[in-house]
Every structure is written in structure tokens, then in C-alpha cells.
Amino acid sequence: MVKILIRKDYLCSQMYNTLILFIQRMKKLIMAAFAVGMLLSCGVGEEGETLSGLKKADFVAETEGGQTALFVLKNKNGVEACITNYGGRLVSMMVPDREGNMKDVVLGYDNINDYLSSDGNYGALIGRYGNRIANGKFTLDGVEYTLPQNNNGHCLHGGPEGYHARLWDATQPDERTLVLTRLSADGEAGFPGNLDIKVTYTLTEDNAIDILYEAATDQSTIVNLTNHSYFNLSGVPGSQVLDELIMINADAYTPVGETLIPVGELAEVVGTPMDLRQPVAIGRHIDEAFEQLVRGRGYDHNWVLNTGGDLAVLAAKALSETSGIGLEVYTNEPGVQFYTGNFMAGDDKGKHGVTYPHRGAFCLETQHYPDSPNKPEYPSTVLRPGERYVSRCIYKFTVEN
Q: Among 157, 164, 228, 301, which one carries the catalytic annotation?
């Protein structure tokens, strides 16, 4: 590099200022070129378009005093995951089908404004307590706490302003990892304690999204974090999932009352449409006159996993025989909520203007059981100062011929 020394006393003031302005403009151009180069190296086009057809510019907005953005993760196989720091949402997931074609297998929107204006949970991080708490109330250490009642008089997914509707701080240390952090303040949505949360999304080299949840509190509280991605493994936008296969490694589930709060018992799945221990089409029994299915308008229940919290043991598996794309779920959680899009109205327009139909996706939300704070017979969701909350969910995508 050649250094050019410029002495102001050799130039008139006007010439000096013009030269400095030129140097500043050149610096900006160099920095812009560097930024474009970084985008291209991450597999994102010059206009910020991802493999799934999303544009980064469409995910920039101001909210909660900060800025939303779209982050792109890629692995050596060309698999791509797009995540926004608004609600920590998995926006798209591009994986190969049996023909090697890349398919987007999660539902969502293609711009941040639709997420900001929607009360849905597409791809979202859920908390402080995933699933339902009866009557929006629980008692901890003799103190009763009142939460938002946003679902038949109950608190669902932390209330309408839960973590799915919050801005997260985001850092991307490498092309396969996104770290989201947030301090959930004492009293937020009625929950006690300042909860310091860290969620790490990792796109592994074997085509899995590995989600690690960590949290610590300064006051006794309850915690139950999960992810609410809506999956359609056919990769065909606007199709239903009734012909996709589901298997859940569980001998029991938690039956619910009329407003979908667990009644407290564990019911055996054997001899019922809730027996999903062997692969079965989602739609095979979904409309049967079985009381639990009638109450949930289909499957919307928590299964009691046989895995014992062992991450090496398969908790659930889904498969589209149309595309050959499979989804394996591994978790250290004791339960999983299987939901089949029963409350999808069939009029919601998602990515690229596609209308998502009734039962156009399914969810597998790893979790502690619903309403655990009010049912001491269930595994505890209490977190106390000095303890560390650690939950893990692995969504691994496979291909079958």
C-alpha cells in the first residue's frame, strides 16, 4: 500500500476539503462493497434474497426501541434456515426432498409487517410459559399470581404479549449459529422474577435445527419454553397435512376438559386414536367421535414421552411420503404437544401470497405438561435463584425414498 501525505499548507482550503470529501466517499463505497461480499459469502444474493425467496430488507422495522432483522443460517449441504429476532421466529426452513430439490417446510410470512400485525405463533419462541395455565392463575410459595387470560379464560403461551411478540437481542457468531438473548422483567405478563434468557439456534451439518434454551432467575418463578413452528413436510404451499405420517413415542397423554386444560390424570393411549406409537396418517382418526378429539377439534394434546429425557432416544417422527422429507424430534423434555392446525381458519395468506388452509400444518412443541404450576402431580416447572433452566429440542430433517 502506498501512503500519500497531504499537507494542508500546500493546498488551498477548498481543494483540501474536496479531497477529504472524496476520500470519505471512497471509504463508504469500499465498506458497502465489503458488506455485499459478506452477504454473498453467506449465500445471500445482492438484493438480500435467500434461498427461500425472502428478502432481508423486508424484515427491517423498528419496535420496542430496537430493529428487527432476518438472519440466515446455512450448512455444507446447502440447507438454509431463516430466523427473525422478532419473536425468535423460524421463518423458513429449506431442506432437500427425495429428488434433491430444496423445499420450504415451515409456514410463515415473507415480511416483518405481517408478523407485527398478526396474533399467530408461526415459528415463534414461546414463553414465559408455553401452553395453557388454568384461569390465568397459579400460586408459588404461598403467593398467587395473575396472568393474562387470552384463551377461554386461561393464559396461553405467556399471554398476547409473550415472547413470540417481543424483540430479542441477536448475535450470529458464525454461519450456522444464532444466539438470542432477552431479559424478561419481574412482573412482565404477571410472572415473578427477572428471567435472563439465552436461546441458541444451531443448524447442524446433519440437517437439524438444534434449539438450546437456557435461563436463570433472581426470584422463584415458573418457566416452560418451546418453539411453535408449523411444519408441512410436503413442501407444497397451501396443502393440508392429513396424509403425512406421525409417530410419537408415548404410552400415555394428558386428557383435557372442555376448554383444553388437562384434568390431571395420565391416560393410556392403547385402544384409542391417541395411540401414535406406530406411524399413522394424521388424518386417519382426526375426525372420529372420540371425546378428546372432539374437544381439541383434532389433535391438540400433550403426550407423555417414553424417552426419560434422553436426547439420544427418538421422541417423535413425521414423514411426507409425497416428498420423502422426514422430521425427527429429540428432546430432554418430558412431553410434546402435537397440534394439527385445527384452529387455522383457512384464510391466512403466508409467504409469497399463498393461502394456508385449515390443517395446513402440524406442530410438535417439546415441553413440560400444560398447567403444571397448578398440578403438583406433574413434573415441576419451578425455577429458583441459583438454578439453571436448560431445555433442548432438536428438529432433524431426513430424506426417505
A: 228
